[in-house]
Design goal:
The structure holds two protein chains of two kinds.
Chain A lengths: L5 E2 L10 H7 L1 H4 L12 H21 L6 E4 L2 H16 L6 E5 L4 H12 L3 E5 L9 H7 L4 E5 L13 H10 L3 E5 L18 E5 L10 E5 L14 H4 L7 H13 L2 H21 L3 E3 L10 E6 L4 H10 L2 E2 L1 E2 L12 H5 L4 H5 L1 E5 L6 H20 L6 H6 L1
Parallel strand pairs in A: 1-11, 3-4, 3-5, 5-6, 6-7
Antiparallel strand pairs in A: 2-8, 7-8, 9-10, 10-13, 12-13
Helix pairs in contact in A: 1-9, 3-9, 4-5, 10-14, 11-14
Chain B lengths: L6 H8 L12 E7 L4 E9 L6 E9 L2 H14 L4 H5 L3 H7 L8 H21 L11 H8 L3 E2 L4 E2 L6 E7 L2 E9 L5 H12 L7 E7 L1
Parallel strand pairs in B: 7-8
Antiparallel strand pairs in B: 1-2, 2-3, 4-5, 6-7
Helix pairs in contact in B: 1-2, 2-5
The chains are: A alpha/beta, B alpha+beta.
C-alpha cells in the first residue's frame, strides 16, 4: 500500500539499535550462566562482571553510585517498587499519605490507587494548562503523615518537563521522599541526582532503542524501602529473580549510544513538525509547553475530528502515531492527561502524539505533515461539528 | 499488513458514501456527542406519496466504525419505505460490513439510532406517529438527554442543567439552570425546540433560563 513505513510512536517502544543487539548477543549464546558470587564458576563470574559493568554505566549517567541502582523488568515495575516499597517501609512507622500529580503515567497513578485501597490517603495534585504541577498546592499538601511525593520528570503524552529541582527542594525541606518517573527523559534531558534532590528515579531502556522488559530504579543510599519482589538475594537484596543480563548489557549499550547531537536532531524534528502543523493546518492546538518539553515529542489536537480516525488514515498511508482518543485506548477512556490540563473531551479525542527516534528524518516530518493536512481536511468535511454547517445553509 | 477492521469497513472508512448535509431535509437527527467521542448526524428526504427515502446523507465525528456504519446504513436505507428503513438493524449493518469489533458496538450503533431518529423526526413533523402516547415528564427528560451542553460535551440531563420540567394542557415548560445571556443559551434552546416541539401533543413549548 505504501513504500515506506514511518514510525512516530517512539514513546511507546523503539526499534532496537543493531549495536545493542550485538552487545547483547554473547549473553544469550556464550555467557548464559546466572551471575554467581565471586566464588562461583568462571562463566558465572563473567556474567556477574557484565552485570556490574552495566550497572556502573547506568549509575554513572544518573550521577549515582553503583549500589544505588537496581535493575527491574521495566519502568512499570520500577514505579511500583518505588511507591509500594516506600509505603511498606514507612506506612506504619511514619504515616499513610502519598502525593502524586493528576497526570502521572499509569504505573504511578494505579500504584497510588492500589495503596488507597490498602488504607493510604493519596493527594492528586492539579496541573495548569501546560501541565505544570501547582507547587503551592504541593507545599500545602505535605503533612506530618506524608511519606512520599511522586511527580514525573516529563509527561508521557504532552511532554511537559516539571521543575523537579524545586520539587526536590520542597520535599527535602519537609523531610519527605521524592520519586520521579524519568521514563521519557532518561538520557534525553539532563538528570543528575547530585544536583537534584531525588530519592528514587524510574528509568527504562525501551524508549531509547534498547530492549523491552529491562528498566531500573535509582534508590538514594539510606532510603527506607521494603523489598517488593521476594525470592533470592539479587539486586542488593532488594529485587529477587534471575538477573536479565542480556537486557542489562543492552540497556547500558543503549545509554552509551545516545548523544547530545542526537537529542538536538530530535528537537529539530519536533520543532519543525509543531511549527508546520500549527501554521499550515487550521484549528490545531499544541498540547504541553512549547519549549519546556522533551526533545522527541510533539502532541497536537486537531479540532472537530476524532483521533482514531486520524491514526487509522495515517496507518493506511504508512505512518504510526498514537492518540489520546477514547476510541483508541483499551479502556475506551479519553486521555486523563488532556482532561487534567483542563482540556475538554473533544480536545482529548482529537489529540495525536508524534514521538521521534533515531531512525526518523526531516523527510519523515515533511511527509507526515503533508499527509496529515489531507487526512484532517477529509475528516473535517464529513464532521457534523464546526463551521461547514453554516456555510452550506447560506 | 494488519489493520484492526475488515476490508469492507476500511473501504467505507476511506470512501464513505452519501456524506454531507441535505438542504431543507424532511427529517434529521443527531446522535452521540463530542464527549463520548462519537457523533453522527442523519438527514433524509422523503417522497410524501410513497413514503420512501429518496435521499439520505450523514455526517460523522468519530472513529472508523462510526464512519463506516454511517456510510453503510445510508446505502441500506436509500429507496426503502420508512417502515422498511426503520427495521435496518445494527446486526444488518455489521454483517454488511463484514463484522465489527465487539468493543466498537457503542460507536457503530449510533448511526443506526440516527437513522431511526431521523425517521421519527419526520413522522412527528408530519403527524404520522401511530403509537400516540401522551407526553410525560419522563418522555421530555429522555429527549433532553440528547441535548448536549457544549461546555462539557455531556447532555443537559447528565450535567444537571435541567432544573424543572412541567407539562400542563399541552404546554411544556423547561427550566434550564443557566443564565439567559450565557454564550450557549440560544444554541441550547434551539436544540431543545428541535427535540420537543415535534411531539404530537405538544401545543406550546416554553424554554426558560434561570436568572
Amino acid at each position: 500500500m505504501f513504500d515506506k513505513f514511518v514510525y512516530l510512536d517512539n514513546a511507546a517502544a523503539t526499534r532496537l539499535d543493531e549495536r545493542v543487539v550485538e552487545a547483547m548477543k554473547p549473553y544469550f549464546l556464550d555467557v548464559y550462566a546466572v551471575a554467581t558470587s565471586e566464588f562461583g564458576y568462571s562463566q558465572g563470574i563473567e556474567a556477574r562482571e557484565a552485570l556490574d559493568k552495566a550497572r556502573e554505566t547506568l549509575a554513572n549517567v544518573l550521577g549515582a553510585s553503583r549500589k544505588e541502582f537496581i535493575f527491574t523488568s521495566g519502568s512499570t515495575e520500577s514505579s511500583n517498587v518505588a511507591l509500594k516499597g516506600v509505603a511498606l517501609a514507612l506506612g506504619e512507622k511514619k504515616g499513610k499519605h502519598i502525593i502524586v500529580s493528576k497526570i502521572e503515567d499509569f504505573p504511578v497513578l494505579h500504584s497510588a490507587k492500589a495503596l488507597e485501597k490498602q488504607g493510604f490517603r493519596v493527594s492528586y495534585l492539579d496541573v495548569d494548562s501546560d501541565g505544570f504541577v501547582d507547587l503551592d498546592q504541593l507545599r500545602e499538601s505535605i503533612t506530618d503523615e506524608t511519606i512520599l511525593v511522586s511527580i514525573q520528570h516529563a509527561n508521557q503524552e504532552i511532554a511537559t518537563i516539571q521543575d523537579i529541582e524545586t520539587i526536590g527542594r520542597i520535599c527535602r525541606g519537609k523531610g519527605v521522599l521524592f520519586h520521579t518517573d524519568a521514563t521519557h527523559t532518561f538520557t534525553r534531558v539532563p538528570l543528575d541526582v547530585k544536583k537534584v534532590l531525588m530519592d528514587l528515579v524510574t528509568v527504562s531502556a525501551h524508549t531509547i532503542h534498547g530492549p523491552k522488559s529491562i528498566g531500573g530504579l535509582y534508590i538514594r543510599k539510606g532510603t527506607p524501602i521494603a523489598k517488593w519482589v521476594d525470592g533470592g538475594f539479587q539486586e542488593f537484596d532488594l529485587r529477587a529473580g534471575i538477573e536479565n543480563i542480556p537486557g542489562a548489557v543492552g540497556f547500558a549499550k543503549a545509554v552509551e549510544l545516545v548523544t547530545p547531537e542526537e537529542n538536538k536532531r530530535l528537537q529539530a524534528m519536533r520543532d519543525h513538525l509543531i511549527d508546520r502543523v500549527l501554521v499550515e493546518i487550521p484549528s490545531t492546538t499544541l498540547n504541553g509547553h512549547r519549549w519546556k518539553r522533551i526533545p522527541q515529542n510533539a502532541n497536537i489536537t486537531f479540532h472537530l475530528v476524532e483521533g482514531e480516525s486520524i491514526t487509522l488514515h495515517l496507518d493506511m498511508r504508512g505512518f504510526a502515531v498514537s492518540t489520546g482518543s477514547a476510541c483508541f485506548s483499551r479502556s475506551l477512556e479519553a486521555s486523563h492527561v488532556i482532561l487534567g490540563i483542563g482540556g475538554d473531551h473533544e480536545r482529548a479525542h482529537g489529540s495525536v502524539r508524534f514521538t521521534f527516534g533515531r531512525y526518523n528524518t526531516m523527510e519523515d516530518v515533511d511527509a507526515v505533515v503533508k499527509t496529515l493536512a489531507e487526512v484532517v481536511q477529509e475528516l473535517r468535511i464529513i464532521s457534523p461539528l464546526g463551521e461547514n454547517q453554516e456555510q452550506e445553509e447560506d | 499488513m494488519k489493520f484492526p477492521y475488515s476490508e469492507k469497513v476500511l473501504e467505507h472508512f476511506r470512501h464513505p458514501r452519501n456524506v454531507g448535509k441535505i438542504k431543507n431535509p424532511d427529517g434529521k437527527a443527531v446522535e452521540g456527542s463530542p464527549a463520548c467521542g462519537d457523533m453522527v448526524a442523519v438527514y433524509i428526504k422523503v417522497d410524501p406519496n410513497t413514503r420512501r427515502l429518496t435521499d439520505i446523507k450523514f455526517e460523522s465525528y468519530g472513529c472508523a466504525s462510526n464512519i463506516a456504519t454511517g456510510s453503510i446504513i445510508t446505502e441500506l436505507a436509500k429507496g426503502k419505505t420508512l417502515d422498511e428503513a426503520k427495521k435496518v438493524s445494527w446486526k444488518q449493518a455489521s454483517e454488511a460490513l463484514g463484522g465489527l469489533p465487539p468493543i466498537k458496538v457503542h460507536c457503530s450503533v449510533l448511526a443506526v439510532e440516527g437513522l431511526r431518529s431521523a425517521i421519527q423526526n419526520y413522522e412527528e413533523r408530519h403527524g404520522l406517529v401511530k403509537d400516540r402516547k401522551p407526553t410525560t415528564v419522563e418522555v421530555v427528560r429522555k429527549r433532553l438527554k440528547k441535548v448536549i451542553n457544549p461546555i462539557s460535551g455531556l447532555s443537559l440531563v447528565r450535567t444537571n442543567l435541567v432544573k424543572d420540567i412541567e407539562i400542563k394542557d399541552g404546554t411544556v415548560r423547561v427550566v434550564i439552570d443557566l443564565p439567559a445571556n450565557h454564550q450557549f443559551a440560544s444554541a441550547i434552546k434551539e436544540e431543545i425546540v428541535d427535540k420537543i416541539e415535534p411531539l404530537w401533543d405538544v401545543k406550546k413549548l416554553v424554554v426558560k433560563f434561570t436568572e
